[in-house]
Prior knowledge:
By secondary structure, the protein is α/β, with parallel strands linked by helices. It has helices at about 20-30, 45-50, 55-65, 70-75, 80-95, 110-120, 155-160, 190-195, 215-240, 265-275, 280-285; strands at about 5-10, 35-40, 135-140, 145-150, 170, 175-180, 200, 245-250. The model has no long low-confidence stretch (mean pLDDT about 85).
Amino acid sequence: MNHTLRLGLALGGGGARGFAHLGVLIALEENQIPVSVITGTSIGAVIGAAKALEMDLKKLERLLSCLDLNELLQVSSSTTREMQRVIGRGMVEYVRGTSLSEEKTTPERLARIRELFSLLTANKSFSDITIPFAVVAADLETGQRVVLNQGKLSQAAAASAAIPGIFHPVRYKKRFLIDGGVIDKIPASLAIEMGAESVLAVDTGAPLASSINTSFDIFLQAHGITSRELTSLQLDAVRKQVNGRFLLLRPDVSWIKLLDFEQSSAAIQAGKEEAIAHISEIKELCGARGRFSGVN
């Protein structure tokens, strides 16, 4: 008698590129692929939350097409310009001698991302989800992985998506939390911890740069190399844990910049195309126990 495996979905970070997750989820629904567990980091957290709530994903797609997210979040699609702002803001904070623990009000950008994520998750809480779901963030002070699975979904997603320097750390109890991608860019191991027997992971991270011209380019490339190697080691361990029943999707979104939210529709379409291209392998992940032959 065949046993239908519990499929875990692990959605990674990637900023604007991460809207490809929504395209993947829409394709899974159209092909009636059952998802038993969902985990998310950064943008993957808010898209995963929508699926865990069993929201109408096509309506969510239409909503995103109507929003000017760069204006809403007050961020520039130019990474260089954002880094210049980070440096300038850091210098002001240094001169003033301000500290995280002394801040009494919520920074405007953090408030805006919470409002956006509240909209995208219908202001729901983890208690409202119908599919087991958890979010990964990182503790700014200890570097530990923090798993969030209680309270408001928008709060957890904001913590997981708090890109260092771009968005302010999120205060959670006595911790300051930042982008979960720092420690666990694609939280596939968490999906297994939550009971998944096979794992479909979606990687929308940035590729390594082919052209390096400035000191800042060198800094970003070094960070990218470290992140890539850490993620590779983590995913190799996951493959072994599920006896090879693991598939990694990589939608064609490498050309989209981290904060180029104007390209959300293109990212969603890329996610749909990637999922459809591997739909037979994805269906096999839900099949009888045994080694999966289509590992990517």
